[in-house]
Amino acid sequence: MHAAPSAVERPAAETLAELLGNASIEITVREAPALAEAAPLLPAGTGIYVPSLPSRPLASSLPLLADLRARGFDPVPHVAARRVAAGDDLPAFLGRAVRTHGVHRVMLIGGDESVPLGPWRDSVHLLESGLLRDAGVREIGIAVYPEGHPRIAQEALRRALESKLQLAAAQGLGVYAVTQFSFAPERIVALLAELHQHFPELPVYVGMPGPSDPVQLLRYAQRCGVGATRRALSSLGTRIAQLMVHTEPSEQLAVVARYAQRHDNVVGVHLFSFGGVVRTARWVNQRVSALSGAVVG
Asked: What is the pTM of this model?
């Protein structure tokens, strides 16, 4: 389970160090060969998420989950409800992930398919089944959206969040939220404040892009349906070089840290590596090292 820090205001360096010390990152199956280089840069126990890829069956991530656990990390597979195909054996996948590879939590998302590939219409439907609990999963991450969802109304998102929290509690599952990335800091802070008001016990990891380049950011913003971010990036046109302020996470991290100094629902950050897991791991390593000196000094 995730314990939220004290709400008492703390020095900025201490808050930044705490958020980065509890950072998680992502690595796809395609990036698995890069793990050997990234692993020494990250502390043992780091949560490393393995996204669900549309073109690959669930079982294809099992070797990567095994490698992550063997290296001392906390492997967190994505389970995208609408992407679980009829031919995927979800109970078998979860059973192996939990019993053999030490998985204790999953990132439960709906998936972007317009028509479900299998029996699950959304993440609430899958959670209702009890499959996660029965497989031995102890905690779930759920997605929340600073800029809304491109295909789901705000009220529907709110009802789904409430349903997930109720279902998780009824099944004895821990639950935390991970925000979709955004380049609209006011949207991030507004969502964090809203969650703090309505769901004060819900721990939140703030999603933000790892170090990247403007073209990558625009492509992923378009793919992920990040509305205000996508419009902002597109409007830059030939001035896209000005986006360089967003290609390194420190600015966003500082905004989140200022919020976290006075609120207790943010427990860490989640870095979207966008295919650059080594680059992201190196950035985390360098920032944690620098902040450790600042806190001690």
From this structure: 0.88
Rounded to whole angstroms, the Cα distance separating 54 from 132 reads 21
d(CA 248, CA 244): 8
pLDDT digits (tens, 9 = 90+) for 42-90: 999 999 999 988 878 999 999 999 999 999 999 999 999 999 988 789 9
- CATH number (domain holding residue 74): 3.20.20.220
Measure the CA–CA gap between 103 and 69, rounded to whole angstroms.
8
Angle at alpha carbon of residue 185, lines to 181 and 190, rounded to 5°: 95
Nearest to 119 by CA among 94, 92, 84, 78: 84
* Rounded-to-integer distance, Cα 249 and Cα 44, Å: 22
d(CA 42, CA 23): 10
Which residue is associated with the tokens 């590596």? 273
Flag whether 279 is in a domain: yes
Lowest pLDDT segment from 93-102, 116-125, 204-213, 229-238: 229-238
Are the C-beta atoms of 42 and 71 separated by less than 8 Å?
A: no
> Is 82 a member of any domain?
yes
- What one-character DSSP code corresponds to residue 238? G
Name the token pair of 173. Answer: 């599952």
Query: Given CA atoms 208, 212, 214, 216 in this order, what sign does their dihedral have?
Result: negative
Q: Exposed (0-12), middle (13-18) or buried (19+): which is 10, by Cβ within 10 Å?
A: middle
The answer to whether residue 102 sits within a structural domain is: yes
**For residue 44, what are the domain limits?**
12-296
Number of domains in the chain: 1
User: Computed from CA positions of residues 249, 255, 256, 261, in that sequence, does the dihedral angle turn out positive or negative?
Assistant: positive
| Cα–Cα nearest to 147, from 184, 98, 106 | 184
Choose between 231 and 31: higher pLDDT.
31
Q: Is 178 helix (H, G, I), strand (E, B) or coil?
A: strand
Residue count of the chain? 297
In a domain, 1, yes or no: no
